Amino acid sequence: MSGPRETCDVAVIGGGPAGLAAALGARRAGAGKVLLLERDRTLGGILNQCVHDGFGLFLYKETISGPEYAERLTEDVLREPIRVATGTMVLDLSPDRVLRVNSREGYRLVEAGAVVLAMGCRERTREMIEIPGTRPAGIFTAGSAQNLVNLQNLRIGNEAVILGSGDIGLIMARRLVFEGVAVKGVFEILPWANGLERNIRQCLMDLRIPLELRSTVVEIRGRDRVESVVVAKVDESLAPVAGTESVIPCDTLLLSVGLIPENELAKKAGVVLSPLTGGAVVDETLMTSIPGIFSCGNVLHIHDVADWASFEGFAAGERAARFAAGERPAGPTIRVSAGPNVRYALPQLVTRGKPGVEWSFRVKRPVRDVAVEVKGLTSGKVYARRKFARLLPSELQKIKVRVAVEEDLEVGCP
Amino acid sequence: MSEHDAVDRLTCVLCPVGCELEVGTGPAGGVQVTGNQCDKGVPFAEEEVLRPKRNLATSVPIRGTASRMVSVRLSGPVPREMIFPILTEIAKLRPEAPVRRGQVLIADVLGTGVDVIATRTVLAKADS
Amino acid sequence: MRETATPTYDVVVIGGGVVGCAVLRELSRYDLRLLLLEKEADLAEGVSKGNSGVIHAGFNVPSGSLKAKTNVAGLALIYPLAVELGVPHRKTGNLVVALSDEDRPRLEELKAEGDRSGVPDLEIVDETAIRRLEPLARGRWALYSPHTGIISPYELTVALAECAWQNGAEVRLETPVEAVGSGDGLFRLATPKGTIAARRVVNSAGLFADEVARLAGIEDYRVFPYRGEYLIADKDCGLRLGLPVYPVSSRNDPGLGIHITPTLEGNIILGPSAEPVEDKRDAASTREVMARLKAEAGRLMPELGGVPFIHSYTGIRPKLVDPSGRDRFRDFVIEESGLRPGWINLVGIESPGLTAAPAIAKMVAAMIGGRLDMREKPGFIAGQPPRIRFAHAGDSERAERVSRDADWGEMVCRCEHVTRAEVVSALRNPFGVRTMDAVKRRTRCGMGRCQGGFCTPRIVEILQDEGVPADGITKRGGVSRLFYGRIKG
């Protein structure tokens, strides 16, 4: 393509809670030219449609709503000499950090000294979980419904069933009731609820919305608009149990059946992804397998609390700035794997001999009164042990090793 | 307040320990809390069972528009039974742009002592 | 002119599928007053949208049949037609694979049938050749047909209709024919939007062709709906399929067997099943068939085990074969009614109807030309250049487009890289189609892995910018509404 390419020290892709923080982190670590690219018209990402409160407890030490959190973090960004490009989508990313970028202002190529991936996640769909039946209007993912209801003032239905007990689904159950839509029930295929306990209590129990565990939607009916759904109990292998079906008349089905890190750009750049997180494999500096490309927030792994996505963003931004300034990884790495009842532990790679590394992890199923251990795979030595009164799959937890480690590790909950 | 909450189970959210509290009817109409590992659990459970308080959030259209929305919440929690009456009040709101984040849209809503406040800034011009 | 109350058309085509639209476009070469009536809110809403999108070579049908004749003739016509109309397509070739030596005789039969029908360049190939032609395919032997291809069936249908429209033909959507009268050499077609008079009628109503014929008093046909379910794999599943791969199907199979087909965009399609259903509109997917599709496809191509699927769809095929009867084959019906001269019935146009459509259109034009005085119009517009897709454009083309029109710089669909310019252009189509599915089929918005999760709210905004009220936004017209107005009015 003719014409000069734009250059920057750090390009941050995505202006949500992680990307905003990454831009600030890069700036505070001394990066000269920081470019923040956001595909939506406003900064803040999905926070803008999360009008409920419960954000900011860790970052701002008070509980505020998503839009407030977004605006406060945006104001911090706008106070810095950070180049903000909204309505701008990155279409391609090469391993040598050339970005193809499109916006109403023009289509252009950007060369970045370092890149921070902060694109967030997308929602699992009806098709991914293969619900049989018809294809009428009235099926929405919970996040799209949140956008249509909170930001576009649209009545998406009159009687809704919600499949999946993820937090967005629970929050939307309450939002729909607040706006006069009857919510007939929330159905969860697993034996436990997937959302935070606070949300189960305040969004469902307060409003007497039934939560049915071990059940799922087995068929969608209705030719033009949803007319009913068929729900059934599932067995241990999550397969529907014949004879337990019941028909629930409704005109709307909301799906809150999981989030997937949106790593299309990472794939284009050749970044190695983890099948356990759906995000990049990173080291303790949040750098991916491609030097100079960092990852943070929900594109790295799904967070339960936005504040932690921001903290990860600050760290990724700082490391990206240091990379752009010429700093390179300190040496060979050790591998860290997920042990018993741990779904994943992150980072998956750590610089050998590096002390003070902290891991984020999630458990596979709820447990009480357990100890989580970071154990050497060769020596069997326990480097860190932390007791938990309870651990839930919906919660992201942390464990830290203070000493330097020279062998591959496993984070487990034996 | 209500009979159906006579026995309740809830998880204390005051610290990461997350004690599973069991709340039963105590002597003289009070409550009896068990399962708490520290003293803070008792007042937490009492308030949650006897006088639960909640914040609420929704959004309303800017005056003269169909779908330019400003999100709102309460400046603090209110007794749970006030939620729907307050929602009815909020539904009547059609604030005029510009709206600032934190701007009070209804002061002391229904005498609860809390305000309905805007949670985002909406500029006067349409392309905010 | 002659009639006072109702407009009179030389030819009215009933049914906006690929066959009806091909007939309309063929007739639009001539100096005729033409109208197409479609009961749905968009073209290609029936049989034409729910199939494999394969340009068949013609060896699957008995030689001498109309199916074989129109297929082979259509094969020669459809590639140049697709180029003229700017419709995405690719000549890929295809393989029918036999997993064991026992099945080889069936391949020989297929080849012989094809040879008799004049299908060009069929060849039986061995294991080595199979792997060379398609590394993902398995088999001892295969029938290789180099002229088979793939095409977007709804884009072809829409392009045919738009071409006819450019040449003066009219198209009315959401206009079902509810009753038919005749007299004074005219058919009177009663619709909810008024009565239309026609000298000639072409009934290409697909699944409903029997019912439309019955409105005219023609009781000769019965269309049996057969449901075919499909699954679509994510483009990012790590597999690149170059050409359609079919199993050797038994002679008793009502379809061609569950096959594996690439799309032009790089997805892989599995399917279809073939089950008789009661309701012609019963396009539901079932748990049993979804599982069977995966099992069958896995047998044919083990690499497909465990790939992520992003979408399922179902097509209903209009068959004349009675599922409870003994017939295994029924031919296309392409005939003028003896009872109602001037009324042409196209019935049972199932596979290979997509490939055959241009040939059927020529047959119909000849039938009408035998009775009406048809003069070729000067200045017939044969088609249009291919639509530019942002996703497929190179860097300089993209930069140039955005600098000329900023709408090319606004990304609406993040999965398929569709811009606002493309969505707006799709919404400004000549027939006023404004449904979500119309946008999807014309632009690919919502066909990616998020299945519309992100772009639906954006398209909803653009529809309103283009003048569709929130209450009037539908998935596919009629009562398939997305919203019940505003929450706070």
Architecture overview:
The complex is a heterotrimer of chains A (414), B (128) and C (489). Chain A folds into 3 domains: 6-122 and 260-328, FAD/NAD(P)-binding domain; 125-257, FAD/NAD(P)-binding domain (3-Layer(bba) Sandwich), CATH 3.50.50.60; 334-412, no CATH class. In chain A, 20% of the residues lie in helices and 34% in strands. Chain A contains 7 helices and 27 strands. Chain A has helices at 17-28, 66-79, 142-151, 167-178, 197-205, 264-269, 306-324, and strands at 6-13, 34-37, 53-55, 64-65, 82-85, 88-93, 98-103, 106-117, 121-123, 139-141, 159-163, 182-187, 211-212, 215-221, 228-233, 246-249, 252-255, 259-261, 293-295, 333-338, 342-346, 349-351, 357-363, 367-376, 382-391, 397-401, 409-412. In chain A, the strands form 7 sheets. In chain A, strands 1, 2, 5, 6, 7, 8 and 19 form a 7-stranded mixed sheet that branches. A 5-stranded parallel sheet of chain A has the order 10-17-11-12-13. In chain A, β1, α1 (17-28) and β2 form a beta-alpha-beta unit. The termini of chain A are far apart. The model of chain A has no long low-confidence stretch (mean pLDDT 95). In chain B, β1 and β2 (20-25) form a beta hairpin. With 128 residues, chain B is of the alpha+beta class. The termini of chain B are far apart. Chain B is built from 2 helices and 9 strands, in the order βββαββββαββ. Chain B is elongated, with a radius of gyration of 19 Å. Chain B has a 4-stranded antiparallel sheet, with helices on one face. Chain B has a 3-stranded antiparallel sheet with strand order 1-2-3, covered by helices on one side. A two-stranded antiparallel ribbon of chain B has the order 4-7. The longest helix of chain C has 20 residues, at 66-85. Chains in contact: A-B, A-C, B-C. At the A-C interface, β7, β8, α3 and β14 of A face β18, α9 and α12 of C.
Task: Please supply descriptive tags for the structure shown above.
heterotrimer, B: alpha+beta, four-stranded antiparallel beta sheet, three-stranded antiparallel beta sheet, 15% helix, 27% strand, disordered N terminus, C: 489 residues, alpha+beta, FAD/NAD(P)-binding domain, D-Amino Acid Oxidase, Chain A, domain 2, 4 domains, eight-stranded mixed beta sheet, 12 helices, globular
The tally of helices of chain C reads 12
SS elements, strand count of chain A: 27
Low-confidence stretches of chain A: none
Q: Find the CATH superfamily of the largest domain in chain C.
A: FAD/NAD(P)-binding domain
Mean pLDDT of chain C: 94
Oligomer: heterotrimer
Please work out how many helical segments of chain A DSSP would assign: 7
Number of domains of chain C: 4
State the major sheet of chain A: 7 strands, mixed
Which stretches of chain C are low in confidence, meaning pLDDT under 50 for 5 or more residues running? none
Q: What fraction of the residues of chain C are assigned to beta strands by DSSP? A: 15-25%
Which chain pair has the greatest contact? A-C, 56 and 57 residues
- Counting structural domains of chain A, the number is 3
- The CATH architecture category of the largest domain in chain C equals 3-Layer(bba) Sandwich
Helix content of chain A: 10-25%
**Could you give the distance between the termini of chain A?**
56 Å
Helix content of chain C: 25-40%
Computed CA radius of gyration of chain C, to the nearest angstrom: 23 Å
